[in-house]
Design a protein that fits this description.
Largest sheet of chain A: 2 strands, antiparallel
Order of helices and strands of chain A: HHHHEEHHHHHHHHHHHH
Mean pLDDT of chain A: 93
Strand content of chain A: under 5%
CATH topology of chain A: Farnesyl Diphosphate Synthase
CATH superfamily of chain A: Farnesyl Diphosphate Synthase
Oligomer: homodimer
Strand order of the largest sheet of chain A: 1-2
Largest interface: A-B, 56 and 56 residues
CATH architecture of chain A: Orthogonal Bundle
Amino acid sequence: MEIKSELEKRISEIETIIEQYLPREEGYQKTVLRAMNYSVRAGGKRLRPMLMQETYKLFGGNSKVIEPFMAAIEMIHTYSLVHDDLPAMDNDLYRRGKKTTHAVFGEAMGILAGDGLLNFAYETAAKSFFLEPENPNTGKAFSVLAGKAGIYGMVGGQTVDVESEGREVDEEKLSFIYRFKTSALLESSMLVGAILAGADEGQQEVIESVAGLVGMAFQIQDDILDETSTLEVLGKPIGSDKKNHKSTYVSLFGMEASRQEVERLTLQAMEELKSLSLENEFLSELLLYLIHREK
Amino acid sequence: MEIKSELEKRISEIETIIEQYLPREEGYQKTVLRAMNYSVRAGGKRLRPMLMQETYKLFGGNSKVIEPFMAAIEMIHTYSLVHDDLPAMDNDLYRRGKKTTHAVFGEAMGILAGDGLLNFAYETAAKSFFLEPENPNTGKAFSVLAGKAGIYGMVGGQTVDVESEGREVDEEKLSFIYRFKTSALLESSMLVGAILAGADEGQQEVIESVAGLVGMAFQIQDDILDETSTLEVLGKPIGSDKKNHKSTYVSLFGMEASRQEVERLTLQAMEELKSLSLENEFLSELLLYLIHREK
């Protein structure tokens, strides 16, 4: 499998799905709708909906009930970026080579576009109740989606991340930040896919663990790229962690140990995934690809 | 019925319910949890959960399934206040006689506390799926909760409200702002109560209309109080609409017409409610009380 061209094809398919759920830019409130769509359309790897869809397929899922959840997880991811970029947070003017939402639409609209995306994510996911009313797992999927995005998930991680700026953090706290700020949404993605496809409790536990490992590897790879990549490749200024005085895995343990940890986490994730004895070649290739990515 | 003392009793009962769903202030992320709880505990009339509970009772609802939704609607209302008060939005330092959330916890934590509350609202409401798994209406209740809070509800109204600052707005646009920014959450409150109790489609329509009328009356009364009340009674600076150069019903049509409109809307709401031929004396008294309130 030629992963890069396959990835591009999948990203384009996923974007077509997400596009169907974006609001039309009309009505008195159209500025916030434009700001939301601008943020979602700004690109990205669409990794979360992709992991959700592939995990859904892994467990034999084959209906459109997954699609509103795929759009929802990308909206949640996007809202978190929009709010993270605000002046009172990371104060970033560029992301993925484009101006950030508040840089284009102003700070108030940045706040409201984030709020709009977060609300609309749940409104969109709720469409699943009507698409497949007999699916007994939609309620649990909903519960996981909200839980992993919130104070015991991503928002919890963002809180500690913000409070740690300019301070030395130890390994335990850094691990909390990575697990909550980054892994939580990947766990949500893969778990929701598994749950909606009818995976049993044991299988759900394996998937949650795999996603947690992938999330940690993904975040450490992010730290590595922040020091070694270039503005052109990354689409955003490099060295932003240093600029914001943020402790990272690289600043704590050095580049070599970081590379080894990414490798170790990914291999463990692959092994746990294999223990399920289920086949999804693309999913395995995707996870391996993530540690070799350059942006 | 002595409405004032009855109201106090109900408010206290509702606060006991909400309190059970608030997060414990522990863990690395406890600052955001403290900020969230500070915001929710800052007081208020608890009007939304009260309307939800009373509408639920009106249609014969009698289980605890309503309680997570009651907590959720108050969290959604509170998140909207926290974000509205931010420097980039209304820039308010006081509300209900207390410092606003960002004034106490800083701007980044104000953003995150709002995000945390919004997410946690959906996480909390999702508990209903496990409390009453056989209730066929929870999915629709969820859908209404998210829909009325979002871009085709409150966030839509906030957007136009923010954009209209310092500009003259006409009656149609003002009506849009009031309907979306204020009525939408009251519609959500009463509709969710009706839906979870099993009201039929026709009854749901009546309830949505009643709530819409109550919301308009409530907002115009708010405008009146903003001009006629005092800091001590209202718990926040009066004249804030003028300060923020906001058009209101009072600035467009004058005080007398505004008072008459509140009366007219409320009586129409009462009449439509009566058409259901269902009894809830407290709910009727509550709606009447709202037009005579002084804060």
